[in-house]
Write a structure and sequence with these properties.
The protein is an alpha+beta fold. It is globular and about 60 Å long.
Length: 493
């Protein structure tokens, strides 16, 4: 293990923005700074919602150039993580066959019925352990089955693998992101050939699987020229699903914890050694996604801060833009739990008029309807905390995992009101931070692969605890109020 700190770049692509982070890592050292941030704006063309992946790649190159300038022209490594389920298709020449389709696009409407006609939901869960989401990769491929684009495709690359391929010329399928396709058996950590056969999906579309810590090539000469970096610069496969990297970035002391990776989504669950493939887990819509070092992320997707983000976008479109800090301060002064909604309701998935949908949901459950932006904000945060409460409790029951602390990481860790409400709702202490857990998990895996660090996840997390400063929230006892709010909306999706 090297005693000299080295410099790594984390490319971390989220659903609303991308960033390149620069880290200095060594034994006892973990310094992280943002060098470049850029928007991730979907584009609707011909009725289909796409990711503007070329603009994202431009942002990555700009970010690596800034990272190089900050590091004196030399990087010791690069790793790429992003959101899950979406992909790009390449033709026989390696050219991209159109911009990747956004998971919120409506093309998967009706795809689940087609899938379950050949693979019952119970069988699919027993084989892959993945929760039903209307945009899982397998459903996207079912929806695209008869398209000319899929017929012409020679390769399918998940989003972080596509970016990594453009940087290095090397193709691979990183396992944590591959596990969100609903084509991986979480017990073998390999493809489920039977699921692929029965759905008519050609697994040869995917390049070979690789694991976090595996080499993923070196920056191409053209990339070095574009970014001003001095080569060679190795690229390492990290937990390329951003949640996998974020869970590495949880500064837990021991194993008795639940995590909430917050951002556009809240990913709520526990870290296990074996998947939970029971019928009870399927009915609760929990997923078993693969993590770093042979772990399993047993979790459920909760709609997350998308609800508030989409409210704010709607208000801005109406000529009434809101300041987030002002909204949160006003929401904190309002009475709690006056109106709550099921934050897991699929009705909230598409973009559009979110305040109207929230108001409709409140009215449908015979509650008061929020009127002001502050009231909508309080409704969203109370509802998210309620969903966190129910999901943490369900995770404990399904897995038998002991939970003494809830770790909140990601962008929502900066939201003090949400963190306090989550502590109150769960009746457990909340440790909030780091906000950039995904980038930290990314660089920790890179540094270990480079020999700068050594040891297990527990060792990596010990470095996090010694170098980061989380905020702790103590639960305020008022269980009855949360019980009453839960009863108003019934079981959470």
């Amino acid at each position: 293990m090297s005693s000299t700190p080295r410099t790594f770049a984390a490319v971390d692509l989220g659903a609303s923005s991308g960033r390149v982070m620069l880290a200095r890592v060594g034994p006892g050292t973990l310094d992280l700074s943002e060098v470049h941030r850029f928007p991730n704006r979907p584009v609707r063309v011909g009725g289909t919602l796409h990711w503007d992946v070329l603009a994202l790649y431009r942002g990555v190159l700009d970010g690596l150039r800034e990272a190089g300038r900050a590091a004196g022209g030399r990087l010791d490594g690069v790793g790429v993580d992003s959101w899950a389920v979406d992909y790009g298709l390449l033709d026989a020449d390696g050219s991209l066959l159109g911009n990747p389709v956004h998971y919120r696009d409506a093309r998967t409407d009706g795809a689940a019925e087609k899938l379950h006609a050949v693979l019952p939901a119970e069988y699919l869960y027993a084989a892959t352990g993945l929760q039903h989401l209307p945009f899982n990769t397998v459903l996207q491929l079912v929806a695209a089955r008869d398209t000319a684009q899929l017929a012409a495709a020679e390769r399918l690359l998940m989003i972080p693998d596509l970016i990594s391929h453009w940087l290095t010329g090397v193709q691979g399928t990183e396992i944590t992101n591959a596990s969100t396709t609903q084509l991986i058996d979480p017990r073998t950590r390999d493809w489920s050939t039977e699921v692929a056969r029965r759905t008519g999906i050609d697994l040869s579309l995917f390049p070979p699987l690789r694991s976090p810590g595996d080499p993923a090539g070196e920056l191409l000469p053209e990339v070095l020229a574009e970014t001003g970096l001095t080569g060679p610069v190795p690229v390492t496969a990290v937990g390329s699903h951003d949640t996998a990297s974020a869970v590495v970035g949880v500064p837990a002391d021991g194993e008795d914890f639940a995590y909430i990776a917050t951002g556009t989504w809240s990913l709520v669950g526990t870290e296990l050694r074996e998947p939970v493939l029971t019928e009870a887990s399927r009915r609760a819509n929990f997923t078993n996604e693969l993590g770093v070092d042979g772990t399993v992320r047993h979790l459920r997707n909760v709609m997350g801060l998308w609800l508030l983000q989409e409210c704010m976008r709607t208000w801005a479109d109406r000529g009434d833009p809101q300041d987030l800090g002002t909204l949160l301060a006003a929401a904190a002064e309002l009475p709690p739990l006056r109106f709550v909604v099921d934050a897991g309701d699929p009705a909230f998935i598409p973009p559009g008029d979110m305040p109207r949908r929230i108001a409709d949901a409140c009215a449908a459950t015979r509650q008061p309807v929020p009127r002001t932006p502050a009231e909508f904000t309080r409704c969203v945060l109370d509802s998210l905390a309620l969903a966190h409460r129910e999901t943490v409790a369900r995770a404990r029951a399904l897995s038998g995992k002991r939970v003494e602390t809830v770790h909140v990481v990601g962008g929502g860790a900066r939201n003090a009101l949400l963190c306090q409400l989550t502590a109150d709702a769960c009746g457990l202490p909340v440790v909030a931070g780091p906000a950039e857990a995904a980038a930290l998990g990314n660089v920790l895996v890179q540094a270990r692969a480079a020999g700068v660090l050594s040891g297990s996840l527990a060792d990596l997390r010990a470095l996090l605890r010694s170098t980061q400063e989380p905020v702790r929230y103590t639960a305020r006892p008022d269980t009855a109020a949360w019980d009453d709010a839960a009863a108003r909306i019934g079981p959470v999706h």
